[in-house]
Amino acid sequence: MRLSIMTFMRFVVLVLVGLVVVQAVEAADRDKLLSEPGVYGTFASFSLDADWGKQNQALRIAQLTVLKGVVEQHREKMAIDVYLLRGLSDHADLLFRVHATELRETQQFLLDLQGSLFGKHLTTAGVMHGLTKKANYVPGMPDSLKAELKIPSDPGSKPYVIVIPIRKDADWWSLSQEQRAAMMQEHTEAALPYGKTVKRKLYHATGLDDLDFITYFETSRLEDFQSLILALEKVKEFRHNRRFGHPTLLGTVKSLDEIIETLAQ
Amino acid sequence: MRLSIMTFMRFVVLVLVGLVVVQAVEAADRDKLLSEPGVYGTFASFSLDADWGKQNQALRIAQLTVLKGVVEQHREKMAIDVYLLRGLSDHADLLFRVHATELRETQQFLLDLQGSLFGKHLTTAGVMHGLTKKANYVPGMPDSLKAELKIPSDPGSKPYVIVIPIRKDADWWSLSQEQRAAMMQEHTEAALPYGKTVKRKLYHATGLDDLDFITYFETSRLEDFQSLILALEKVKEFRHNRRFGHPTLLGTVKSLDEIIETLAQ
Amino acid sequence: MRLSIMTFMRFVVLVLVGLVVVQAVEAADRDKLLSEPGVYGTFASFSLDADWGKQNQALRIAQLTVLKGVVEQHREKMAIDVYLLRGLSDHADLLFRVHATELRETQQFLLDLQGSLFGKHLTTAGVMHGLTKKANYVPGMPDSLKAELKIPSDPGSKPYVIVIPIRKDADWWSLSQEQRAAMMQEHTEAALPYGKTVKRKLYHATGLDDLDFITYFETSRLEDFQSLILALEKVKEFRHNRRFGHPTLLGTVKSLDEIIETLAQ
Amino acid sequence: MRLSIMTFMRFVVLVLVGLVVVQAVEAADRDKLLSEPGVYGTFASFSLDADWGKQNQALRIAQLTVLKGVVEQHREKMAIDVYLLRGLSDHADLLFRVHATELRETQQFLLDLQGSLFGKHLTTAGVMHGLTKKANYVPGMPDSLKAELKIPSDPGSKPYVIVIPIRKDADWWSLSQEQRAAMMQEHTEAALPYGKTVKRKLYHATGLDDLDFITYFETSRLEDFQSLILALEKVKEFRHNRRFGHPTLLGTVKSLDEIIETLAQ
Amino acid sequence: MRLSIMTFMRFVVLVLVGLVVVQAVEAADRDKLLSEPGVYGTFASFSLDADWGKQNQALRIAQLTVLKGVVEQHREKMAIDVYLLRGLSDHADLLFRVHATELRETQQFLLDLQGSLFGKHLTTAGVMHGLTKKANYVPGMPDSLKAELKIPSDPGSKPYVIVIPIRKDADWWSLSQEQRAAMMQEHTEAALPYGKTVKRKLYHATGLDDLDFITYFETSRLEDFQSLILALEKVKEFRHNRRFGHPTLLGTVKSLDEIIETLAQ
């Protein structure tokens, strides 16, 4: 019985929210933004204020349709992903990952989001930016290793997301390029066995915030992800992390409609 | 006189709250979840907001019945323990320990909890996750020591709970497996005399949050627990803790009905 | 003129508050709790919320009578001291020091306090616990020193209270018992000249919170207290404090009636 | 359609706000303030409170006209720049950079700003002060390097602003003047390739706040800015930064009218 | 025109506030309190709450007359100075410096202040205490240096105030008295050139809060003050500061009437 009501409610929410977006949107070239170098990735996390949950459902649905409108409109120009942190992370409730070629455009999206009826219930928990770069293979790295690195992770849904911000220590940057490359090769080899079940993406953050790197992970097997991090903690390069996490963001990958449905309940 | 009124009130609360849960629930296999490896343990602590205590008792009881409903429903799939931190810890008022085979299910429970009428009065104080693993006995550990470790703690109620999050330093992870094992044997031997009166459980947290371990203790003798921690602080392994506590959570073990009764007063 | 009005007000407050407590209470054996080992000392500090001062005086007096009732009732089982921090410490407004043989009883007192009409205006600033232990004289400590240590501080009112939480570093605990004892003898000798004007009490906190010790001082001569701390900072043992203060709590010793009178103004 | 409405709105806002400032203002000699030594630069960042966005637009426009009035009035005496941080920095929403010959005048501006109808919605996020000084060329620095340093950055709009506060360690200050100069020459040479696309300005903060330097950057090419910071992290001088960022402020350069227009939406 | 209104307003405020204090007060011997050893100096900083500015001016003036009354009354017993931090420091809006022979009296003043109608709008930002001591000249310090130290700073108004809290490291206290004295002589000589334009006063804080010293500066030339701090950062003693500032308080010296006038606007 309880389930039938929930199913009906889900239907109502999706219909109401679906009605709003009538114009056809031409999506940004999401694949390019997510794979090419020279793209800015922004991780903006938000908490819902105490008033959010105290509103009646009709009001919440009205505000969520605004959220959908804002996201859809900006998706014409950039790639926007949403994640549910609530329940798994004490840092924030929602996480947006935005890929754009100019941070000004990302700023305009976040301004529109925060200025919207829905955004008035959001409190900014954190904003981090990084730039994607071409993989900088270590000179002398065996071709077999390079080939293995290019094998994509197994297809299929990867419901968990983990974002770990990293700050290197001053010693790291004073090492020679060769010393850093040697350590990175050790790091890469330690990570290799987990490439199939844990998808990774790296962002270079130096100067854009108080970080040097943002590491992004998706997996359906958190146990493998934990083994990967344990393996990375044992290589020399790890000793040059002044900050690793703090916060570690853990959440679940959701479509915008799933987020809206969850928040409408 | 005062006591009789309290006894009556207790009766009223329990009857009211008891009425709500009419359907029979089939509990998750709690024993398995609490003893097997590969289970995720989540420690979610919450503070009650300032409005909670300002509501009249009827309203509070209505909201507590919702709490009971949410917990009972999810107990079909996972093991949920509740603890009262208020008065003993300045970090939070309530602690939930959830054991589940998938963190997605734990997230759904916490979403339902926070989205409920009762949950609107909760502010998240902290969320920590760890994974249970098979005891990794040190190679060459004497069989007598292994046998002693398997003796369960004395039966009987253990009213106090302590949760201590731990983060190891980078040096720890760069030690060889043998070096870490030798230190852990010294650690284990130091802890042994307290096994009868202090129950322990270990969770591996690396990567899931900003910790490496979560250690959970139950005892009826806080003096013994203090002696245990003092003994552990004297072994070499302790020098590799970058974080030990911060916060240390101290509270009392309660049934859901006892928590409800306390909060209804 | 102003003074006469204040005197009258004081009279009114005391009469009103005094009326409430009609039943005779049999106090816990306060002397035993304050002098024996194996007793738990809890330091709970609270801030008054912004609404407190905005209420009219009649309402405040009504709430303060509740405070008096809650404290008197629990004094049957435990020793409860109150201190005024406001104006001297930015950490909190009020400090309760509770001595009990079981922390569960302390928790019940603090639950009743926070659940009372007065308690709804309290925000918890900090809770620290420690256990009293038998003085652990250094082996080989001269009998003359032991004798001097047993001389109680000068009688007479000591209006100032200072509470300093301490956390030792990992090196401290890895020293041998003899090394620690030698350092403690040096510490003790440095403190000796101030024994007459500065009363001290030590609580062992390891494991119960993020501290190793809580040191409690009472004095009428803050200059002597400052000289005592300066003397202690110069001995070797001081170098093993990872945390000393943070916060240092400074306030004045008050009777419950004095606190009530101050807050009623 | 949406764009036409926004264009109209923009027009309305600018007309309304424009009407207010009727008196002709004689601007402070902005060029001198921005180029000469002995000028105090203040960086004051603010967050908008939750009520700001909940007001209707008419009210917001009325308050923004007050903002315009306050800034224009003080621009008679000092140089005031505004930046939009919201969306790019989690530290604050707005940043004011004020150049004045006396900090008392800057204080008066900020008092008037915070005391205004608009200012009641501002929460101070941070205030930092620095003093501009004559470039202190390293003795023996080649004239060619000095000449290159004097080449101004490429003209044209530089939409991005980055402000990085810096605190040196105690070792830095205990080095001899020659040692510091040698390290600064290495720093200067590393920065040189980025002089065309990244504009820099340095403020000496020691004693005026908890910093030693405030570094200000403008660029249209964030990638170049990131390369500049990476180059600076690799020179020896970087090892003497006890604090670098925390917070790093990232935003966009805006005219006062553009800020008003954005906030009026 | 604007100025005439402000002048009139200023007149109104001063008349209204002036009327309140009819009784003649006999001021505490301010000169003695500010120059003698054995006096407690308290630095209490406060922020004004968001409601303060939202009240109409009549209400604010009424509350400011209460502030004047409370300060005047306590000035019979102690020396009370007020400073405006708002706009120059992000730590707080107002700073009170109180000199008294007993901290109990300072506490009573701050209790009366916070309990007053004006005080209900104050949030405590920080409270620090220190004790004045006789200058402890280094044995063997040349008489010429001692003489120079006794020359008072140039007369004339010094509008800027800076307060820097200091905590020494454990190494400092474990040095011999001679070693510390030698370092202090170097410190004193470095400071000497700035004695004419920067007035200094030292408070010993050990044990009264989490500091060892509070250093207080007044100047009309912030550039000289900055040079003084740079000179002090270069002597060996500076390496023994575990904390220097955090917060550094920067503000302007104001009479009580000037503060009232500013807050009444």
Concise overview:
Five copies of one chain form a homopentamer. With 265 residues, chain A is an alpha+beta fold. In chain A, 40% of the residues lie in helices and 25% in strands.
Describe the structure.
Five copies of one chain form a homopentamer. The first copy, chain A, contains nine helices and nine strands. Chain A is about 40% helix and about 25% strand. Chain A folds into two domains: about 130 residues, 2-Layer Sandwich (Alpha-Beta Plaits); about 110 residues, Alpha-Beta Plaits, CATH 3.30.70. The two termini of chain A are about 15 Å apart. Chains A and B meet through strand 5 and helix 8 of A and helix 4, strand 4 and helix 6 of B.
Low-confidence stretches of chain A: 21-25
Helix content estimate of chain A: 25-40%
Q: Mean pLDDT of chain A, rounded to whole units?
A: 90
Going by CATH, what is the homologous superfamily of the largest domain in chain A? Apc35880, domain 1
Radius of gyration of chain A: 20 Å
Q: Which class of the largest domain in chain A in CATH terms?
A: Alpha Beta
User: Largest interface, and how many residues on either side?
Assistant: A-B, 34 and 32 residues
- N-C termini distance of chain A: 16 Å
Strand content of chain A: 15-25%
As for the number of domains of chain A, it is: 2
What order do the helices and strands of chain A follow? HHEHEEHEHEHHEEHEEH
Number of helices of chain A: 9
| Quaternary class | homopentamer
Number of strands of chain A: 9
Shape of chain A: elongated
